[in-house]
Amino acid sequence: MQAFGWREAVPIYVDNEFSQGVIPCLITDALQAIDTRVPYRSVISPEASDDQIVEELYKLKTMQARVFIVHMLPSLGSRIFAKAELNGMMEEGFV
Length: 95
Description:
The structure is a single chain. By secondary structure, the protein is of the alpha/beta class. The protein has one domain. The chain contains four helices and three strands; from the N terminus they run βααβαβα. It has helices at 17-21, 23-33, 50-62, 74-86; strands at residues 10-14, 42-44, 68-71. It has a three-stranded parallel beta sheet with strand order 2-1-3, with helices on both faces. α3 packs across α4 (74-86). Residues 1-95 form the Receptor ligand binding region domain. Keywords: Membrane, Transmembrane, Transmembrane helix.
C-alpha cells in the first residue's frame, strides 16, 4: 500500500464466523499501522445471488473506492471478480 501511495482500501470478505471474527481486526489493524484508511467494509454472504453481488459492487463503485482487499472462498471470489469485470471494475484505476 505504501509503495504505491494508496491511502485507503476497502476489505471485501465473506460473511461467516471466521471472517467476521478475525479478518476485520487483522486487516484494519494492519492498514491502520501504515496510515491507510478503511472507509467501508464489504461483507458478502456465501449464498449471495448474482444480483446481490452486483448491487454491492455498484455501491463500492459509486463510493469512488479503488483499492480492494478480497478474502473469501474461491467459489464466491470467482463470482465477485467476474461481476466486477462486467461492471468495469477490473480496468485501469481499480486495484
